[in-house]
Amino acid sequence: MLEVTAIAKNFGGLKVLQDVSFTAGSGMVTALIGPNGAGKSTLVNLIAGVLRPTNGTVLLDGVDITGMSPVKVFEAGVARTFQVSGNVSELNVFECVALAAYRRARGYREANRLAREQLERFDLWQYRREAIGDIPSAMVRIVDFARGLVSQPKVLLLDEVMAGLTPHEVDIVIERVRECRAEGIAIVMIEHVMQAVNALADKAVVLNHGRIVTEGALAEVTAHPDVREAYLGAA
Ligand SMILES: Nc1ncnc2c1ncn2[C@@H]1O[C@H](COP(=O)(O)OP(=O)(O)O)[C@@H](O)[C@H]1O
Ligand SMILES: [Mg+2]
To answer: Looking at ligand 1, which residue's alpha carbon is closest to its atom 2?
Structure first.
């Protein structure tokens, strides 16, 4: 289980997150929703160790991982995708996933096998020789998803992985998320594709202006007047 407690993040004088607390249970999809600029990606970066919070703690199965480096957080069992990938690497799709597999595998043969399994699972095997820097950003996010899974994470942070996909591709990724849930992974899903949110969210947490507005069952949450306001205000 992931427990985020009283998280705050300031960038200089700008308060991007204030007093954010929520939990994401194992074998559950927790949808983190809210308009652009609400602070969702910042929250993912804080959990993943890319940013340090100004205040608050992040616990993974009761262990404090606040302020650990991204590599340590990953090794502790938190995998993530990037909304905007800064990955301009010349590694190809296969190498990118295999590199993550080396952390867990006993040798390169096993790492290669694990990487192949995940790439086939996501229908990416045919793109294995493409350089990461050359493929569309929507595909990079799916490669990051596959890469996260080879590490057998406890927590999976998905930052808008459905964006830019066709409805058919969305269905495939929804199926993959369901499998992750069935495997007992705690999934935190930031998503604007409502088809996916409706299909997957066991719980929704709504963020606006860096604060949690409400949380609960999706139907409850989307009926909340402040949530309607947040979305209409943003439109
Ligand atoms: N490194 C940064 N420095 C200053 N402001 C930032 C930084 N990263 C994000 N922000 C600001 O924080 C706010 C939340 O951004 P973000 O977390 O990307 O929102 P979301 O993912 O919900 O769209 C925005 O106003 C954004 O401009
Ligand atoms: Mg974002």
So the answer is: 11
Distance from residue 106's CA to the centre of ligand 2 (Å): 36
Number of domains observed in the structure of the chain: 2
Q: What are the pLDDT digits (tens) for 132-166?
A: 989 998 999 999 999 999 989 999 999 999 999 99
- Residue that finishes a domain, picked among 98, 119, 152: 152
Question: What are the pLDDT digits (tens) for 15-41?
Answer: 999 999 999 999 999 999 999 999 999
Separation of CA 43 and ligand 2 centre (Å): 9
Q: Is the pLDDT of residue 233 over 90?
A: no
Kind of pairing between the strands at 2-11 and 14-24: antiparallel
Atom 18 of ligand 1, nearest CA residue: 41
Give the domain extent around 123. 87-152
Name the more confident of 172 and 105.
172
Indicate which residue's Cα is closest to atom 9 of ligand 1.
42
Ligand 1 site, residue 46, Cβ cutoff 6 A: no
Q: Is the C-alpha dihedral spanning 123, 125, 126, 127 positive or negative?
A: positive
